[in-house]
Amino acid sequence: MHLPASPGWLLVALCAATGAYCLLRMRSDVEEQRRAAGGEALMGFGMAAMAVPAAVFTPPRWAWPVYAVVFGAAALHALWAARTSAHHRHHLVGTAAMVYMALAMAASPGHGGSGVAPVTGALLLYFTGYVLLTGVRLVPVGAGGTAVRLGDRPELARACRLSMGIAMVAMLLTM
Question: In angstroms, rounded to a whole number, what is the distance separating the alpha carbons of residues 78 and 99?
């Protein structure tokens, strides 16, 4: 991506921490947490890898098509799961966005485009709306009285999804 060093490293840290928490959620006793956590961990770590500032590490040209294949496979999985889950439809959009960004970087590494491509604009609108809606859903509506394991806390899962949505907006803005 075309981020300056400081914001790039902050984005790397945010996405890597989110991916690590999602790995923790894969051990949850709650089936829905486990089902979503693997794809979210892949997204978090993949976004972290793509956000490493180019001034520090420029991936070889073959890396971008590899990213596209990995996230293309994740998109196929999300497409299959989207039949029964609205959240997996969001995963489908996210993985498709990752494929799009990887292909854009493969076509033009190190160079920003002039203007906003229609696909980039549509993705920016989607993820901006997603961030706003998810942020509103984080506002607490009541206090819970039961102790819940760290990997089973739905508000932390929503916070991770929010942070990945914000990171996606930041990455798309650099396209």
Answer: 13
Residue 165 contacts residue 129 (beta carbons within 8 Å): no
Q: What pLDDT digit, counting tens, does each position of 151-173 carry?
A: 566 778 888 889 999 999 999 98
Q: Would you state the structure tokens that stand for residue 63, as one six-digit string?
A: 């890396």
- Predicted TM-score (pTM) of this structure: 0.83
- Which spans in the chain are helix H? 5-25, 31-51, 63-81, 86-107, 118-137, 154-173
Residue 24 three-state SS: helix
Round to whole Å and give the CA distance between 51 and 8.
6
**What is the predicted pLDDT for the residue at 29?**
83
CA dist 157 and 148 (Å) reads 13
End-to-end CA distance of the chain: 7
Cα→Cα distances 59→1, 51, 54, 108, 109, Å: 10, 11, 8, 13, 9
Nearest alpha carbon to residue 50 among 10, 12, 95: 12
**Domain spans, the chain:** 5-173
